[in-house]
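To illustrate this point, what follows is a protein record of this kind.

___
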Amino acid sequence: MPKIKLWNENYVMVYGYARVSTKGQAKDGNSLETQENALRAAGATKIYADAFTGSKSRCPELDKLLVVMQPGDVVASVYLSAFTTLFSNSHTF
């Protein structure tokens, strides 16, 4: 996968993470497709997305993302709330 050169001259991977927890979010303009388009426009080259997780504690795509990340990599998300389950559950960095 291509790396993006940032201001600090380090090459890092820019990942995107998108999440919708309810079907109603799609009609409100918060669909996975809308988020993925915004993440690509922001430079994300690999996007992980979880759909309709609701209050489930498992977000399988987020778990995959956390496994592949390397020091210096960047995660972009359209909404900070996409990481709510990350901080409210037992994920570690």
Notes: The first helix runs from residue 24 to 27. The helical segments are 24-27, 32-41, 60-68, 84-88. The longest strand covers residues 14-20.
